[in-house]
């Protein structure tokens, strides 16, 4: 009997060690990261200076906005989806992507979904967007002026900052957000195996749904490695984008070449001269630019300022009518004069006359602000 | 079962050889491989005779088959991974120890100086060999029937690049390897369950039920925290070999995860089997 129980020892010990290791390793990795001290302004300057650094890496994006996870409803195989549905599924669940950057004018974001992929490839002034599922390619030619602007992952371009040193630009940026935001340095972390600085932005505006935004900036190169957005009244991050691995070697030139394959529907789009400019960690700006170009040159309406800014736009006719599955109706709530979508982080208000308003405030505040406009 | 001339120091090679011979000569194994081969054949024939336009429904890549027969293997893998492959692997893995016990041949196997650990390892390698055989059968029969019924040409990857047939064949083999590795964790679970009972059907059913249960758990957003630990999580990740550049992230994570399952359930199976009183 004794011998029997002794024989069980390795059989129990080894699985226990494997399971304990799998659970414990991620939490140990963050212990005590030492980097030379930098102020909040110093870290922002450092991040600004990183523009143009070549690298490639894997990115994981997680959205936890309190919406039903539509990515699983679509299933692995179904290939019919409207653009509204696409946008919604991008806002739910976890998405993986690869990012390749070579200098300031070559970027590629490869979104890896099960059995399908979307690519946005920028090579000089040409941007290609390819969807393997729908078999469509969109070609966008950037105006020569904005081709010089960095829209990459490095940093958010600051208009008119070309004559300033990065440090001055960072200070200006910090001053500008200072009126709406408290900026604080928090503990260093390890992201994607790199030592990184962290700064935390807290909106001073009480009406916004955003509770805080935390940036992790690589201690060696200054590339932003992680952005975590927390919403009020929710402990899990509402939205996070982070590198899971990164390499600082220049990606091969073939990574940035694209020729639409046979049987693909190709669409040509001309951009308006003003380039899209969002607070996202850069990777998403090109897609936004294409989305905006598609919507047309309708000038968006801006209500309010700071974190509680509300942006309104006119939808192209028929943008919602092709939602065959009624996916939109499942997440929208009917209210006076339209329908609203309330998530943990942003609210969307679709008016019956075809306008859409988006803001990081409560849906009721959004409705009130829109009503006050009329 | 027909294990005889294994010399004490033969490292189990003879035992492995006889195990593989017995496994692949079994009518049941041949029938299961035949059923797997029927998947691409049925699929290709169905697509060939129904010339109606692609309605955008059905498994991924189904619409591509009419343009390029090489997509038959791929679509068949997509169809087979959630159900048919785990089903057949569950039958083989669940049968490993319980089957011998059920037939009353287990004690004769152990009378020969084979040792319980060696028998367990040999049985597991046999199950793993079946995983590889099952996947290859789907891929190869898919390629053959696809080439017979449809035009074959350069393949468009998920990233939009086009590669030649030779390049695609290499990628297809890597995908078969990926799928085989994906099934190793399930085989280890089956081996462990198989040591618990002497009723092979029970072990088979339990293994198959677990693979289905894991897939259902993986679909529930409320249980998202569980997903990285489920052995089914990376099952559909094989399409990473259709990207340019090829992404090895899933391959690595999947390999590590399956290795974890093999170690955990391998040692549990050893613990159970080494301490078990063999009565049958």
Q: What would your notes on this structure say?
A:
The complex is a heterodimer of chains A (374) and B (280). Chain A is α+β, with helices and mostly antiparallel strands and 374 residues long. Chain A folds into two domains: 216 residues, outer membrane lipoprotein receptor (LolB), chain A; 77 residues, 2-Layer Sandwich (TATA-Binding Protein), CATH 3.30.310. In chain A, the strands form two sheets. In chain A, strands 7-8-9-10-11-1-2-3-4-5-6-12 form a twelve-stranded mixed beta sheet, with helices on one face. In chain A, strands 13-14-18-17-16-15 form a six-stranded antiparallel beta sheet. In chain A, helix 2 packs across helix 6. The radius of gyration of chain A is 23 Å and the shape is globular. About 13% of the residues of chain A have low confidence. With 280 residues, chain B is mainly α. Chain B has one domain. Chain B has ten helices and two strands. A two-stranded antiparallel sheet of chain B has the order 1-2. In chain B, a hairpin with a 5-residue loop joins strand 1 and strand 2. In chain B, helix 7 runs antiparallel to helix 8 and helix 8 packs across helix 9. The two termini of chain B are 13 Å apart. Classes of the chains: A alpha+beta (374), B mainly alpha (280).
Brief characterization of the structure:
Chain A: It holds the Pfam family DUF2092. The complex is a heterodimer of chains A (374) and B (280). By secondary structure, chain A is α+β, with helices and mostly antiparallel strands.
Secondary structure: number of strands of chain B: 2
Helix content of chain B: 55-70%
The total tally of domains of chain A equals 2
**Which pair of chains has the greatest number of interface residues, and how are they split between the two chains?**
A-B, 46 and 39 residues
- CATH superfamily (homologous) name of the largest domain in chain A: Lipoprotein localisation LolA/LolB/LppX
- In spatial order, strands of the major sheet of chain A run 7-8-9-10-11-1-2-3-4-5-6-12
CATH class of the largest domain in chain A: Mainly Beta
Assembly of the depicted chains: heterodimer
Principal-axis shape of chain B equals globular
The SSE order of chain A reads HHEHHEEEEEHHEEEEEEHEEHEEEEH
Compute the number of helices of chain A: 9
Report the C-alpha radius of gyration of chain B, rounded: 20 Å
């Amino acid at each position: 009997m004794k011998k029997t129980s002794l024989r069980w020892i390795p059989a129990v010990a080894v699985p226990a060690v494997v399971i304990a290791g799998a659970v414990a390793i991620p939490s140990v990795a963050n212990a005590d990261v030492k980097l030379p001290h930098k102020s909040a302004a110093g870290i922002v300057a450092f991040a600004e200076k990183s523009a143009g650094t070549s690298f490639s890496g894997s990115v994981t994006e997680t959205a936890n906005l309190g919406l039903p996870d539509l990515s699983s409803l679509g299933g692995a195989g179904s290939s019919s989806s409207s653009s509204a549905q696409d946008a919604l599924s991008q806002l739910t669940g976890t998405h993986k992507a690869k990012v390749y950057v070579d200098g300031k004018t070559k970027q590629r974001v490869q979104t890896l979904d099960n059995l399908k992929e979307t690519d946005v490839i920028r090579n000089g002034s040409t941007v290609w967007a390819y969807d393997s599922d729908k078999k469509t390619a969109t070609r966008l030619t950037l105006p020569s002026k904005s081709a010089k602007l960095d829209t990459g992952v490095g940093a958010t371009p600051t208009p008119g900052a070309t004559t300033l040193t990065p440090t001055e630009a960072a200070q200006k940026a910090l001053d500008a957000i200072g009126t709406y935001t408290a900026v604080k340095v928090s503990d260093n972390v390890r992201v994607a195996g790199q030592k990184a600085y962290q700064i935390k932005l807290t909106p001073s505006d009480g009406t916004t749904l955003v509770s805080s935004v935390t940036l992790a900036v690589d201690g060696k190169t200054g590339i932003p490695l992680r952005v975590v957005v927390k919403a009020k009244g929710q402990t899990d991050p509402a939205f996070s984008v982070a590198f899971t691995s990164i390499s600082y070697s220049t990606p091969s030139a073939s990574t940035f070449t694209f020729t639409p394959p046979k049987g693909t529907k190709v669409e040509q789009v001309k951009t308006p001269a003003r380039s899209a400019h969002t607070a996202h960690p850069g990777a998403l700006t090109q897609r936004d630019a294409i989305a905006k170009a598609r919507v047309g040159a309708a000038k968006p309406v801006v209500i309010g300022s700071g974190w509680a800014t509300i942006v309104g736009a006119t939808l192209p006719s028929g943008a919602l009518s092709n939602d065959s599955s009624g996916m939109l109706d499942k997440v929208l709530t009917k209210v006076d004069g339209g329908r609203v979508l309330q998530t943990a982080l942003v609210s969307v208000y679709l008016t019956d006359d075809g306008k859409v308003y988006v803001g990081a405030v409560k849906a009721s505040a959004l409705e009130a602000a829109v009503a006050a406009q009329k | 079962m027909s294990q005889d001339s294994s010399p004490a120091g033969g490292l189990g090679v003879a035992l492995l050889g006889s195990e593989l011979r017995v496994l692949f000569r079994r009518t049941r194994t041949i029938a299961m491989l035949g059923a797997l081969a029927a998947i691409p054949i049925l699929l290709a024939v169905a697509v060939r005779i129904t010339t109606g336009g692609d309605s955008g429904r059905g498994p991924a890549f189904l619409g591509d088959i009419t343009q390029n027969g090489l997509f038959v293997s791929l679509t068949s893998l997509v169809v087979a991974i959630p159900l048919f492959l785990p089903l057949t692997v569950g039958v083989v893995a669940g049968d490993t120890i319980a089957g011998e016990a059920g037939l009353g041949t287990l004690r004769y196997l152990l009378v020969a100086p084979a040792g319980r650990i060696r028998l367990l390892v040999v049985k597991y390698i046999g199950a793993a060999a079946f995983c590889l055989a099952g996947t290859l059968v789907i891929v190869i029969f898919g390629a053959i029937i696809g080439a017979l019924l449809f035009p074959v040409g350069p393949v468009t990857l998920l990233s939009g690049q086009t590669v030649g047939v030779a390049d695609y064949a290499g990628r297809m083999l890597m995908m078969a390897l990926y799928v085989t590795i994906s099934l190793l964790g399930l085989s280890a679970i089956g081996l462990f369950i198989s040591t618990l009972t002497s009723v092979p059907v029970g072990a088979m059913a339990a293994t198959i039920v677990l693979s289905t249960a894991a897939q259902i758990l993986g679909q529930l957003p409320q249980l998202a925290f569980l997903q990285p630990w489920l052995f089914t999580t990376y099952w559909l990740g094989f399409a990473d070999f259709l990207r340019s550049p090829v992404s090895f992230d899933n391959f690595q994570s999947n390999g590590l995860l399956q290795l974890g399952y093999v170690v955990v359930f391998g040692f549990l199976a050893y613990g159970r089997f080494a301490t078990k009183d063999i009565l049958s």
